[in-house]
Amino acid sequence: MPGSRKLGRSSDHRRAMLRAMVTFLLEKGKIETTVTRAKEVRSVTEKIITRAKDNNLHNKRQVMSYVTKEDVVKKLFDEIAPKYIDVKGGYTRIYKIGNRRGDAAEMAIIELI
After folding, report:
1. In a domain, 2, yes or no
2. pTM for this structure?
3. How many CB atoms sit inside 10 A of residue 102's CB?
4. Which domain holds residue 18?
5. Of 30, 35, 61, 112, which cross-links 108 as Cys (Cβ 3.0–4.6 Å)?
6. What is the CATH number of the domain that holds 61?
């Protein structure tokens, strides 16, 4: 489920980074990253949560093929997705928090609503 931004990485590295960030966001509920990465993570996370709202074996296998931790998949299907059952998208929020000190990259916090 990759997006359109290259993020200065090869396709394998980009996919692995996005999988890790999506897994961590679903596990912790909130992460701090650059704005560009946050927008990519939002895109993938929203698609995964939408898929998890329909709790069946096919969707569980599809999500497990992307999310890297089994306990996070269980949490997604048991706790996170049921909260959004009547909501049609917009499960995440991005806050811009200023620039990073080292390279002045624009930073943001992405969180589940």
Report:
1. no
2. 0.90
3. 6
4. 11-112
5. 35
6. 3.90.1030.10
